[in-house]
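User: Please predict the structure of the protein below. I'd like the answer in structure-token form so I can feed it into my own downstream comparison script.

Assistant: Understood. Taking the following sequence of 380 residues as input:
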Amino acid sequence: MTETALPRVLCVDDEPNVLAAMERSLFGEFDVVTARSGEAGLDAVRWGEPFAVIMSDMRMPGMDGAVFLAKAREISPDSVRILLTGQADVESSIAAINKGAIFRYLCKPCPKEELVSALNDAVSQHRLIRVEKELLETTLSASVKTLTEVLAMVAPWAFQRAAFAQSCVRHALLKLEWPDGWIYTIAASLSQIGCVGIPIDIVQADAAQRTLSAEEKKLLQEHPDVAARLVKNIPRLEPVAEIIRYQATMAPADATTEVMRGSHLLRAALELERHAARGKGLEHPREILNAIKPAIPEYIIKSLTDFRANMAGVRTVRIRELKPGWVIDEDIRTTNDLMVLTKGHELTDTAIAALQRLLSLEAIKEPIQVCVTSSDAAAG
């Protein structure tokens, strides 16, 4: 929606005469879309341009207004919701408001002036939500970038694991189309921050599937809780912290939608990372993910079945030729045999810059082997 466009408002009511009256009353002040049922309203929210305000009658056959608005909230959480009720529905309407799903309720019949005033207040609220969200995402992105760069310096292997998971999550989100995708990408990028104090030899032993002592197992098992406690201290990252907490287990049944599906996706991404880190191919992601217990939901597995399917072949290249999106096809170690990047790591700008610094210090050697994308293979 541009600055000059009328605010988009969805009106849902099972009475055609009521919808027609609303269109007439609101013409010229709002871009009004109407729907005659909760299901039709959800389709409008799901497939149309975003709405600033979603307004619904309470009493409708099949799906009442409170249920509809709760479902619409899951699809479009930034849209501000208004409930229209008759006098007999006031008690249930107040209950809906108290659950946090409704911005305001209006009693029917509602005079035009009162309706327009309420919609203008809702549009103002929507603008505040969007401004705050944009500021939040910008600020948090900068903070997370700093944290991940620190992680890259202190625990490169943990950074590699998180970068792989982030690549996986971004790939899946293109298909899942979940709102607030930044929550899930940040959860992936910070998922391994609790690993900072774990010695690299323990990690390498785990990757090689060697037997670990009880204390070593405890260190590995506790890192999600450590990370969650750290991230929870950052304002507005509470759901991110909970996703990180349950990256290796099932979230509790009363967890929010974001935490439930975010933890499933992160667990799937990290399982693919572990598979790749052990030198195994990723030609069949579905088989890998189907073997996970507890089970990963099918719709998440489906979103990852073609992960890295655009990789087209191996090249031997120099560091200066590297591009983001290419995948390392061999372990990269320093001249004194410290691991820098493991086979299967997807290159990012940060990783390439780190390799360039190490090369300038003569700490690594080139050329290296990489898997390139289909488009780069065709161009080459």
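That's the full token string. The chain is about 55% helix and 10% strand.
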